[in-house]
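Hello Y.,

Per our agreement to keep a running log of every chain we model this quarter, I'm adding this entry. I've kept the format consistent with earlier entries: sequence first, then predicted structure.
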Amino acid sequence: MYDNNFTRANPGLIVFLIDQSKSMEDPWSGGKTLAEQTALSINRSISEMGLRFTSGDKIKDSANIIMIGYGGTKDSMEAELLRSGSIATLCTDDTIPVQHLKQMIPDGAGGIIPIDFELKQFVTPKSVGRASMANAFQLVSALVNEWVTRARETVDEDGNPITRDDSLDPVPLIINISDGEPTDSEADVRKYANEIMDINCPDGNPLIFNIHLSACGGKEICMPMTDSILPPNDKMSKLLFDISSALPETMVQAAKECGFPDAEAGVKTFM
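Predicted structure for the entry above:
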């Protein structure tokens, strides 16, 4: 289980759920707001995915990305589809605005120097309304079901008909980034998250990752095994911990290589 990789023949699905509620205007480090830091992190992640899937001068269509915002419209409890497409389509779309940034890099002599770089703004910072998280997970449940049950017959890059071996499909990945409690039903958040994690895929069930930007401060928590180390006064941490998946054994080594040396099978995909 959880052995299938993202390939052009069997592309994977990654869904970003983005809290755009009013509280995301609160400050983060470096003079940024929570909304600005969240957008920057997602934009960098998608850009890095594009580089990972690049062969020669061409980006391989090995992943499909969906971005869903919730709380981004005042007085609305409806989640919103912000942007979607294959990794190749998104990274080569010239209509997506570009942000000009500076990055500090080592100069080779013990110091650091600033360099200019451009970053596509696949998602822009927003902090407007109420955190309708349950509605967002409900939308994701429908989209993931549609993805998993899509037709096996398709066409290749040249328009030739092909039949996909769906036994090789990788499981969908859902990444939720939020700073506060849902303003709709917490019970419904749990209901729809569990619906997603119960969807049958050839290689396992979809995985939900939760990143909680906590207002309570304290030590950073990365992939805990139990909820005993969560802040006792932070109810939201417990909710997002509960609806996070367990890290599969086959992903442990990859987690370690990505900067999580203490990762082990069964820890929660929660930070």
